[in-house]
Sequence to fold (434 residues):
Amino acid sequence: MANWADALRSFSDTVVNLPTEAQRFVYNPQAFTQMFGVNKLPNETGFAEGAMVGDRKYGSEKGYQQGEDVALPLAVASMAAPFAGPAARSLAPKAADMAEEYLRKMGGVSYIVPPSKTFADAVRNTKVGEFDPRFDPRKLEQEKIANTAPVVEQLNKAAIPKISLADYEGRPFITSMSDRTAAGADLLGVNDVMFKRPVHLHGGQDYMFNNPNQVWASAQNAVSPILKNAEMLKEVTGQNPLYIPWRMAPTSGDFAHMTGESMIAHAEAAMDKADKKLLNNAIKDLIPSWKGVDSPESIAQYRSAPKTVRDSIMQVMDRDFRNKGGLNIGQARLAVTDPRQINAAEGGIMNVGEIYAGQPMVMKSGHPSYPRGVAGQGLGTVQKEHNIFELLPNVVKERGIANSTATAQTDLRALQMKPYAGILTAKLLRDLGY
Fold:
C-alpha cells in the first residue's frame, strides 16, 4: 500500500508540473477533438475517458479498457494534487467515488468533501454568465465578470422543500430584507486561484436552513422589533408567524464580510510579494495595526473594522489591485452570491420560515456580520415567486403603488425601515392566484 501511495504522489507531482495545455488532455478527453477537428489520438482519448470520465464517447474501446484499469490511481492523484484546481474538482462521479473511498481509508484529503459526497456533488465550478449589471455596471469589467467561475463547496446538501403559500392559509407573517449571499457553503477559490483559507458563506436567504433553531440574523436593533411583532401576532392569532424575507439589491451583500473576505483571500493566494506590500501599506492607512493579507489575523482584523473602513478596503482593492492579482468588486460580489439570485427580481420573496414567538433573542447568531438571531426554523422555498408588495395590499394602497409587481426604489427603501406584517387570508391567496 505504501508503494502505491508513493506512486500516486509521484504521479500527482507530474500532473502538477504538466503545462496547462497538457493538463487539458488529462481532464478533458474532448480536448483532442477540439484542438485538431478530428481525434488523432483515439487510444489516448479512450484511456482518459476510461480513467477520468467513466463513459466512452470519443476514444477507442481498447484505450477505454486500459483507462478503467487505472482509474483509481489517476483519480486519487488528480484529487490529491496540491493545486486542487477546478479541473480536478470536477471529476465525474465514477472516478471521484473510487478516489474518495480510497483517500478516506488512507486518511487522505477526505475533509475536502462531506461524508458520502463526491466532488461532482459537493463542488460547484461554473461561470457566472449573464448577470444583473447592478452587481458592477462598469462596461469594461462585464466580460471579466461573466467569465468568472467561483469554486464553491456545498457543505449542506440537504434538499430544501418546495412549498406553496396556499399551504399556510390563515397564518400571520412578518417580512424584512435579506441580501443575496449564498449560505451553507465554502468559497474555495475563483477561476484557477484556490484560496489558502476558504471563505465560509453564511447567507442570505438560506440562512434559515443552515443554522438550527434560527430563522434570521441581524443587528440587535433590527431583531428586537421582529420579536415584538411575533409575540403580538401570536397573541392575536394563536399561531407562530411565518418569516418571509424579501430580496435586496445586488450590492446588498457588501455589508456582509464575505465580499471583502473573498478579495483578501484572493489577494493572499494570487498576488506577488511586491504588490502585496503595496496593498498592505494601503490597508494600514485604514487599519494602522494591519498584520498583512498573509497573516492568520487578517480576516479577524477586517471583520472587526467599521463598515466605512471595510468599504474603503474593498474600494482600494478594486481600484488599485484588480489587475494585479486581485478580484474586482463585481467578481467578489458574484462569487459570494446565491446563483439563483444573480438575475432575480429585487423585492422578490423566495424562502419561508417560522418564527418561534416568545423565545428570547439569540445573542450569538454565529454570523460574523449579523450578531443577533431570531429563533425559528426554515420551512421551504416557494414554488411561485411574488414581489413582497403583493403580500402587503394595505401598504400598496397607502403608498399609492400602481403596480405591486414593479415597485419603485423609494418603496423598497421604505420597507427597509422596519419589519412589516400581514396575514395570508383566503382573499389574499386568491388574489395571488392560488
